[in-house]
Structure formats: C-alpha cells, structure tokens
C-alpha cells in the first residue's frame, strides 16, 4: 500500500515536471481612472481575459482608482519594475513630446479617423518615440472625446472661459490649450479632482463623459459644455526593458488580448457617450454645445507651439489631417 502510494506520488511529480520550483509570476496592471469609467472597464475586461489565456502559472492583478498611484507614479512604477502594465493617457505628452499630437484641438475627427491614426502613426512613429524614452506601447484604447464642465456658466466660446480655474492633467500641452482660450489652467492628478471641485479650489475641468460619470463629477458640477476639443486615447504601456524580458508567448498573449480590448473599447465608447449624455442631463447638469468655429480660431497658438517644439511636428499634423475622411 505504502509502496503503491509512493509510486503514484512519484509518477505524479514526474508528469507535472517540477512543480515545486515554478513560482507563480505576477502581472500587475494599474490605472489612475475609476473602475466604473470606460478605461477601468476595459482594463478589467483585459485582465480577466489575460488571466484566462495565461493560466495558473501567472497571476494577473488589476488595480483601478489610482490605488497604486496616479498616472505619473505609475510610469515610475513601470520603470522600476513594481508593476508590469499601466494605462497612461494625457500625461504621455509630458514624457514623450510627440504624443502632444493628441493635444491639437479638433484634430481627431471620429473613431474611424483614430483607428487609421493608430495603425499609421501611433504604432509606428509614436511607439518608436516612446521606446526612445524606455516605454513600450502595447495598444491604444479609448479614454474618450473630452468635454468641459464647470460651476460658473455654459461655455459657448473661449470668452466664456475667461478667468475660470480649469483643472487639466499634468501636461504643459493641455494647460497651453486652456490658457490660449483664456482660462486659468491648474494641473493636478485626476484622483484629486472631485475634492478640488467640491471645495472650489478649481471651477471646472475637462474629461470624457465616462471619466466625469465614473468619478461622479456631476455631483459637484453645474454646467457641461460639449466641445469634443480633443480625443484622448489611453495607452496600455510597459517599460521597454521589462517587456523585452517577458517570454515571447506572454508578449503574444498580452498583445492579442489587448487588441481585442481595443475593439471593445472603441465600440463601447461610442455607445456610452450617447447613454451618458442623457443620464448626466437627467442628473441635473445643464448641457450645451460649444461654438466650434470660435474655439478653432483661438487654437492656432497650440499648433504653432507643437510645430516649433516637436521635431517633425508639422509633418505629423499633416499626416493626421491626410488620414481624415479616408
Ligand atoms: O484617469 O487625468 C485625466 O483627466 C485623464 O483623463 C485620466 O485618464 C483620468
């Protein structure tokens, strides 16, 4: 009996390889947005599908709501290996100037345009620029078309922004945009925003509807002005050196599951925008549309700065424009 047990045990060990020596590897993914927002939902869906694909040898852990820090902290944590994946949005332009392409007002027309920009420009030129800064761009997901909210008045033209303290992400480019339009921009992490609006530290902010609703900003904002001033992508990002160390099969799994998450996030983003506009209105927020023409006229300085400051910036803008309407 004892011998039979021993033999069974040994056979089991042999057939499993050497189970004792193989520790479970952790893949930690984090974001600065809320679990409830589109970026949060996309990251959760991605994490679950990646876990299913990788099996027991890997443990995929997802942390939302800046639990592991805001996007700036997450970039540091990627670089020092504390986390493996993060989703990074507007602040990417503070790291890699070429990404300020997504701070050119009214440049991205719609999601179809964005898909072309993704394959022709992001995954080629911008991914190469990111690599020069030690970052590996895995996939472009949707953060969303950004709108302006505030507590003072409906924003119709840049004039209406005069003197308003508007929170922007921690990137000089969004600040420049809002300063050009007459506002007083204040940079701060997203996780501080609700309290800053509640206490009146700032009057307003600009974000996709999904982030506004995800952080319940409608509870501390009176006016929502539909501007679609920029489309913010959110990039699933790794540090380039830790990415290179991953086994090829894991790299392939992450890349493929992320591509599926991209398709889902674009489709879901369009659906949610329509639904959220109604529900934010029902929540008592006063909604209006901005006068695009006056905003476009006041945006020249932002384009000029990009062309001056970013090498090849002019050509990048032209290529994006060429892809519109294809
Ligand atoms: O999670 O900081 C911001 O406003 C960005 O939209 C960010 O993605 C929020």
TrEMBL record:
Belongs to the bacterial solute-binding protein 7 family. Gene3D superfamilies: Bacterial extracellular solute-binding protein, family 7 (3.40.190.170). Pfam families: DctP. This is C4-dicarboxylate ABC transporter. Residues 1-23 form the signal peptide. It comes from Pokkaliibacter plantistimulans. Its main location: other. Keywords: Signal, Transport. The keyword Transport applies. The keyword Zinc-finger does not apply. InterPro entries: DctP_fam, TRAP_DctP, TRAP_DctP_sf. It is found in: Cell envelope.
